[in-house]
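Sequence in, structure out. Go.
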Amino acid sequence: MLLPLIALVAAAQVPPREATALTAEDQVRDICAALKDQRGEPAPGIAPARSRAQMLARTYHVWVPANGFGLGRYREDEQELELDGDRALRALDGAITLDLAGIDDVAFRATPEQAMKWAAAKKQGKLSLTVYFRPSGERCAGNAAARIFRMEGLPLWWELEVDSAPVAVADEEGLPVDKPGSGRSFRVDKVLLDTEMPRPDAGKDRLAAAQAALDRCAQAARRRGSLVVSFTVQDGHVRNPQVIMDAARDEDTARCVSRAMAGASISGADSTATRGTASLAVQ
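Output:
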C-alpha cells in the first residue's frame, strides 16, 4: 500500500497560497491573449482585470496526469527520483504544454522501494503531478483556433501525488523538501586543523561536544546535503565558524550549524591558535 505523506503540507515550506487553479481551456486562452500585449494593456476582448501585468503577477497551479510527464533516473546514493527534464508537461487533455524553467533539476526524495512503487503507480495512471508556477512573460505558442497552447513559466512548487495525495515535494529550485523531524542527523565526515597532519580517522570525533546541537539543526533542515565549515581554534575551542560551502542551499540550517559549533571544544586540540575546516552532511 502506498502511504501518502499528508504531513508534507505542514513542512517548512508550503505551496503558494491563493494560487489560481487552471482547470479549463478558456483560462489558458485568456492568459495567452493577455500575454500577447507587450504594452501592459488589456488585449482586445480581454477584461482589464485580466491584463498582462496582472496575469504575470498571479500564481497558478495545474494538475498533470500520469501521461503528461515523465520520470527520470533514480539516484540511489542521494535517494532522489528525478523528473524527466526532456519532456514538457502536458495537461488539460493536451490543451496546454508547459515549458517550466529548471525542470531538468527537479528531484523528489524517495527510497528505492518508493521509487519502484511510484513507477508502477504511473503505469497504472495513479501517479500525478501538481505544479505551481507563474507565467514568465513570454508569448504563448500554439494555435488558439485549435485550442492548443504552449506556455513558458517559472515554477514555485512541485507535488508528486498518488491517487491525488501528496507523497513527495520539491521547492522552486527543484530540490527535494524533507519533512522536518524525520529522524535526520548530522554526520561529521572530516575535521582538519592547519597545524596538524590529517588523522587516519579524519578527525570525525573532534566535534563530539557539538553533536547533539548539530543533530537538532538536522532535525529542522529542509533537505539533506553537505556543508563545509571554516573556523579558528583558540584554547581548544571553535571560534568564528563560517559555512563556506552549502550544497543543501539551506541558509537557516547553515546559520544553525554556525551557532552549534561556536564555542564547542575540539577534542585533542592543544592551546595553539590555528584554523580548521569541518565537512558535515545531513543524513
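Check: Helices lie at 25-35, 52-57, 112-123, 211-219, 251-261. Residues 138 and 152 are 6 Å apart (CA to CA).
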